[in-house]
Amino acid sequence: MDLDKKKLEKVLGLKITDTEIFIRAFTHRSFLNENKSLEINSNERLEFLGDAVLQFLSSEYLFKTYTKNPEGDLTAYRASIVNTTSLGFESKRLGYGDFLLLSKGEEANNGRGNEYILANSFESVLGAIFLSFGIDTCRTFLEKNLFYKLEQIVSSGSFRDSKSHFQEISQELKNITPTYKVIKEWGPDHDKTFEVGVYLDKKLISKGTGSSKQRAESDAASKGIEILENEK
To answer: Top-level CATH class of 5-156?
Structure first.
């Protein structure tokens, strides 16, 4: 397995010394299902670590930046940048999809552009950065590649809970209360992925994915907000 080290170094702005850990950060479990002889783990453990680093550093940044805001505001601000849509967007902007190791099936199903896979990759790469360079480098990386959009999110009010916001807009524009329905789910019981649709009457407005029904609903609502806003 090869990694375009120079290209990734340019993307991350870092000099990589441990290539193997970054190969692992981009290894989707589907790839290993087709290559069982490879002695390498998927990126799931690094994703677990990266998620913890992300939660800590985003909380720290918000605590220090918004010194007069209550805990409820900080929680909403954090949720607005660490959700699947936000992380998937940053991964796509950084070009993480080019480095992913995927099964043929995921490749054929646009896995490199899959928001959920990209969001998980953002966390797994952050985990690799933490192990390779430490917490200070992670902090600098996030300030440049994620926290930069907080000011705009806060000033525009788009940090509000996506489901509540979507309901407000749908009632205002359509006089309809949205409903949510699980379209499909996959994966083992301990690691399921859900796809949920949000509907106005019987019309499907948008779909969202997540590791829980709640996250998938929130993702669907976020996408629905954009769709309805464009209809104004």
So the answer is: mainly alpha
Q: SS3 for 17? A: coil
Tell me which residues are annotated as active site.
51, 123
Domain map (residue ranges) of the chain: 5-156, 162-231
**Domains 5-156 and 162-231 equal at CATH topology level:** no
| pLDDT higher than threshold 80 for residue 161 | no
Q: Which two tokens stand for residue 175?
A: 């006089």
**Across 31-45, 70-84, 90-104, 217-231, which has the greatest mean pLDDT?**
90-104
Q: C-alpha distances in angstroms, 46 versus 60, 70, 115, 124, 128?
A: 21, 32, 18, 5, 6
CATH of domain 162-231: 3.30.160.20
Give burial (CB, 10 Å; 0-12/13-18/19+) of 138: buried
Residue 3 has pLDDT above 90, yes or no: no
What amino acid is encoded at 37 in this protein?
S
